[in-house]
Amino acid sequence: MKPIMKNALILTAITLIAGICLAAVYQITKDPIAEAERAAAMAAYEDVFPACVITNDVPAGIPIAEPAPQNGVKIEDYKFAYEDGVFAGIALRVTSPNGYGGGVTVAVGVDTDGRLTGISVISQSETAGLGANCVKPEFTKQFAGIGEAVVWTKSGKSAPNEIDAISGATVTTKAVTEAVNAALSFAQSLLKGGEAV
User: Which pLDDT tens digit goes with each residue over 135-191?
Assistant: First the structure.
């Protein structure tokens, strides 16, 4: 057998074995990874609706709808929050693909009045010390209580629906804000029985 054929067969065998090993590792790890992602989302939902039970139980008058992506922003999931058995609002998991380092996934809470209860960043790959500051309470707490499209500003908040941008991280601020706005709009439409807002 020629050396080139022998080397090609050896490389083919190595590639085949490596592929089988990778497939096996994927099968072993996919369920634990999915469970970890679900747990992170539930923890974030509980952050935006403290003292509430988060469930799939649909309240009366709320339609089930398949959210359409808005400018690439995708509503991944939504659940319902109940406080002492009373419907308290909608918890949503939303991903904007437009972060500086890629996708930014945010949990958003919207109460029954259509106002934000808060946000919690579930995952992000933003620059440390800049965009990664989107997880800090100084940034996330600004969203609570807003009931209309959120606008970010670099010059200091001057309106009830404005938030201060993260210093040096305009792209991250924009990504988080567009995710929050998509969630707010969708939740408000559900709260109005499916009507567009």
Answer: 999 999 999 999 999 999 998 888 999 999 999 999 999 999 999 999 999 999 999
**How far is CA 73 from its chain centroid?**
9
Cα–Cα distance, 121 to 44 (Å, whole number):
7
Query: What does the angle CA 34 – CA 41 – CA 36 come to, to the nearest 5 degrees?
Result: 30
The answer, yes or no, to whether residue 33 has pLDDT greater than 50, is: yes
Q: Helical H runs in the chain?
A: 3-48, 137-140, 170-191
The pTM (predicted TM-score) of the whole model is 0.81
Contact 126, 172 (CB under 8 A): yes
Rounded-to-integer distance, Cα 111 and Cα 95, Å: 20
Coil vs helix vs strand at 176: helix
For the record, the structure tokens of 95 come out as 């991903």
Coil, strand or helix at 123:
strand
